[in-house]
Specification:
The chain is mainly β. The protein is built from two helices and 17 strands.
Length: 265
C-alpha cells in the first residue's frame, strides 16, 4: 500500500515528515462543472447496485440549487444479498482524470449509523475496471467512530482519512495521477494517496449510501457542485516552451511558461 498525507490539497507538493520535492506534485486539473439538475439525472445517471430506497431527485437545499438528494427508507431495503444494501446512482465519465463533489455532513445524522460517499471507478488502457478509489463518511454508533475513510483497492480494505468532518458541506476529490500510478483522495484540501493499481482513467462516478434495514432511522444524503476533470499538460523543460510551444500549455508567452518550469523543479 502506498499512502501519503498531503496538507494543502492536490496542488501541494509537501508531505508531512518529508522534504517537499517536485516529484510529489499532483497533476494540474481542468474541471468541467456538471450541475445536478433533474434533466441531468434523468438523462445520464443510472442505478448502481440498488435504487435509493426513498427515491432521489434534484432539489434546492441549504442555500444551493441543483442538489442531488438521495433518501434511505429502511423498510424498503432490497431483499437480495447484502451487496444490494448499498444504494446509489452512477454516471459514465469517459476519459476523466479527476472527480469532485460536495457532500453535506448533516447535523440530523447525529446518533445514527451513516455511510455515504463518492466512488471513482478506475479503468486500465483496455477499459477493464482496476480499482475503486472511494471517499466515504462513516458513522458507527456501536463503536463510536465517526469520520472519513477511503477504500484501498490494493489491499481490499478501508483505511482512515485525516480530513475533518464538521456538520457542513465537505468537498471531496478523487484525482488519478496515472504517471505515478497513484490516486489522490482529498477532503476539504487534506489529501492522501493510494496506489492507482494500473488505472489509466476514471471511467465512472458513483454516489452512494447504505441502508441499515428495518428498525433503523431514515436519513437523507445530499451532493452538489459535481465536476469531472482532465489533466492539464505542463512543460517538463524550457525547450518545451520555445517555438510557440508555450501556447500548448495555456501560457500567454514564453517567459511565463519558462517560469513555471523553473518553479516546479
Amino acid at each position: 500500500m502506498s499512502k501519503k498525507l498531503w496538507t494543502t490539497g492536490v496542488a501541494a507538493a509537501l508531505v508531512v515528515g518529508a522534504v517537499a520535492t517536485s516529484a510529489l506534485a499532483a497533476p494540474t486539473i481542468d474541471y468541467t462543472e456538471i450541475p445536478l439538475t433533474q434533466a441531468e439525472l434523468d438523462a445520464n445517471w443510472v442505478v448502481d447496485r440498488a435504487v435509493p430506497s426513498g427515491g432521489y431527485e434534484s432539489v434546492s437545499f441549504e442555500g444551493r440549487d441543483d442538489v442531488l438528494e438521495m433518501r434511505v427508507n429502511p423498510d424498503n431495503r432490497s431483499t437480495g444479498s447484502p451487496f444490494f444494501f448499498t444504494e446509489g446512482i452512477q454516471r459514465q465519465t469517459p476519459g476523466a482524470a479527476a472527480l469532485r463533489a460536495d457532500l453535506y455532513v448533516d447535523p440530523a445524522w447525529v446518533g445514527q449509523d451513516i455511510r455515504a460517499g463518492i466512488w471513482g471507478v478506475g479503468h486500465d488502457e483496455l477499459g477493464e475496471r482496476t480499482a475503486f478509489p472511494i471517499i466515504e463518511y462513516h458513522q458507527d454508533t456501536t463503536s463510536g467512530d465517526a469520520g472519513w475513510r477511503i477504500w484501498d483497492s490494493s489491499i481490499g480494505d478501508w483505511v482512515p482519512h485525516a480530513g475533518t468532518a464538521g456538520h457542513d458541506w465537505a468537498t471531496l476529490e478523487v484525482v488519478l495521477d496515472a504517471e505515478n500510478d497513484e490516486f489522490i483522495l482529498s477532503v476539504n484540501g487534506v489529501a492522501e494517496t493510494l496506489t492507482g493499481v494500473g488505472s489509466a482513467t476514471l471511467g465512472e462516478v458513483i454516489f452512494n449510501m447504505f441502508n441499515y434495514g428495518p428498525g433503523t432511522p431514515e436519513y437523507d444524503v445530499h451532493f452538489s457542485n459535481f465536476a469531472t476533470g482532465e489533466v492539464v499538460p505542463t512543460p517538463a523543460t524550457k525547450d518545451d516552451c520555445k517555438k510557440g510551444g508555450y501556447a500548448d500549455f495555456g501560457f500567454k508567452n514564453q517567459g511565463l511558461c519558462v517560469a513555471s518550469v523553473v518553479s516546479n523543479r
